User: Fold this.
Amino acid sequence: MKPELLIHIGHGKTGSTAIQKCLRAAAPDLEANGIYFPDPAKHDNHQDIFVHLTGSPKYAPPKGQSEEQRRAYCEAQWDSALTHITATQPKRVVLSCENQFRPFSKDAFDRMNGLLTPHFSKIDVMAYLRSPSSYFLSAVQQELKKRPDCDLPSASRYRDTLEPWRDMGPGPLTAHLFARDALYNGNVVDDFWHRYLPEMDASTIPQLVDVNTTVSAEAMDVFQDFFRGKFAAPARYYAKRDQRMKALIRQADADVAGGTKPRMLDGLRKIIDARCTDLEWLAQKFGITFTDLQPSNMTADEADAIYNTWRDVSDICPVDTDRKAALVRKITEIAKRDQSLSAKLRRAFTRG
Assistant:
């Protein structure tokens, strides 16, 4: 008998990584109960599998890998999952990737549906949705850890994505409100387990530490300067890989006193909420109503005009320029210490 398939598409900043890490950690218990969460290999999510399923990757291939090599690798990931499904005959398969919360073309959906439908008896798609202003700052911070400018969400972000998934996707789409008072036990992992893995005892949920790290507004500003080429890596070791530089900035941010969680400038929340044009549609089609929206007398067009002027971290968050300067000095200091000859020799002897 063919298994059922559940596709979790995020969206981003709604605890997707926590869900994925718990599913991965609980994989043996899940399999013992007939639930298969394919190994995502080098990621927490199944972005590689979805590159093959949709034929529409969100990002360029990793450094040193051609597009052809990437596509071959992603196809192999899917083939491996299918081989496992055939061998073990699970009753349910779970795929999860918040990068798939985006509008796909009809061709992409046709490809996905053609690849999935023959292998599953039933396909369901689900997403958690976070309110516009609540989502915004977390999304900006995540984007600035990867690129010089963030791709600001559109004014109709929910509808842009959910409508194509609903109308052309591989199965029925369900949306849930991401808010503490709407989640089972106030926790998104518990909520996911409760809704979609009811046969699993709650004690099987792995207790993991917080998987996402928040950096200060000053560190966000340094990230942006680095990716814009305004702040050079302090040593060749860090210039070779962005991940090394990002880890260095995070370490320095933790070491410099005065760091606080970023907050938006006063008045921005109401602008973000006012520009959204699909909230009524969302309530009508999915029964989702956000309770934390900020009232405003602005029209959507007026709010959008202001929104589209935001380019720098300082347009969004208060940035302490003195602390940022201290952070840059600490980055240089740590790099000098860790890349000294004595530090390299200590690491070499430790490895030996």
Remarks:
- The CA atoms of residues 80 and 223 lie 37 Å apart.
